[in-house]
Amino acid sequence: MRCFGATSRSRIACIMNLSGFTLPEWLPWRAILPCVAIGYLALVRMLRFQALRKMEHKYAAYLSDPYRLDYKQARDVMQLSLLYDTPFLFAFGTQWALIKSYGIATGTPLLVKTRQLCDPQKIGKRAEDTAVFLMEFLVGDMDSERGRLAMAKLNWLHRQYAADIVRTDYVHTLALFVLEPQLWIGRYEWRALTELEKVAYLIYWREIAHRMGFGDMVPETLEELEKWKAEYERTHLYFIPENRIVTDASVELFLRGTPKFLHGFMRKLFVSFIDEKDVRLALGYPDPPAWATLLTTAFFRVRGFVIRHLFLPRLDKLEPLGKPGGNGRICRSSLNIAFEPWYVADSWYNRLVLWVKTGGKMGPSADRFKSDGYLPEELGPVGFEKIGKESVREEAQSLEEYVRRGGSAGVGCPFAFQT
Length: 419
Known about the structure:
Layout: H1 8-18, H2 32-48, H3 50-58, H4 71-85, H5 87-101, H6 108-114, H7 123-139, H8 145-159, H9 167-188, H10 195-212, H11 222-236, H12 241-254, H13 263-272, H14 277-283, H15 290-310, E1 323-324, E2 330-331, H16 348-358, H17 366-369, H18 389-404, H19 407-411
Antiparallel strand pairs: 1-2
């Protein structure tokens, strides 16, 4: 008991003596914490790039010419940034790719016409379905049965509006999906993407484009894609009212969980994320105030610095892909929803997580949010879940043959597997 009346230093020394452990008399106590801190920082530095070095060692033969990767290798390379090193800004950049696509005046009239992205009752499901499709293609195996069914359903949905869709708009959206995450990661993340990773994005997205029927329109290199995007925006990026309608609806979706007194503040931050003036003009937004740009830039830069120098890497890759349930349908994790809990199973854990995430406003629901899960062939707007399923399954079977023959590299041209 004599230890409890001592000073902090002598108390620790007393306890260590009672336990049989003693420190050398020459070791100054004031040096222990700095040594621990230096050791921790050295450990962070040693482990931070370990996964990247391992991946580059695996694909060392492709570092000099990454365009030799096939789409399966490209997917493997992408997993590092998508699920391990930079998942936050990958997802953030992808969201802003969608927002920036609303500046293309040939695409937004259809979005307004269908009401899928401007009706408050529909936009949440549209956003979550988009996330599910992307997860099935980017995280899941698009050669698998569920991946092929998801691709076939996406194609079927697009065919319902084929007369109103400008095919080159597909290429522009793909360019944004490839380039925008790279831009955000390169500017603000704790490390930039390597050339191997950047090219892998293009190769994999071009394979997706082949399966959607416009792969022959996608440029072969990143430099050509950036040039194509810039030229396309010179003639197609301009303001029409529909651009602002769709973008405003997306802003309102982002603000759903924010107290109303903060909405004005958050809208200014939203605009500050769109750093290209021509894009802001096309969306109908004014320049952001200087303080908003400074605040968002400072946040992202501080975040990148802290992660790079102070955080150990995550223990394992994220697993955002939905898991099949006992009923054969696929359920999403409550941790991975963005706005509404579509396809989240009704369990006490998910109820608790959603109660925290939404402030008690939303929870799993069989009637409202299909808590029994989804089938890939049923994704899409309400009213389209049960129709076209036979056509979707037939195309998925055709895709199986396409995959067996090596994808676009083996077949040679888009949809040749259907002839």
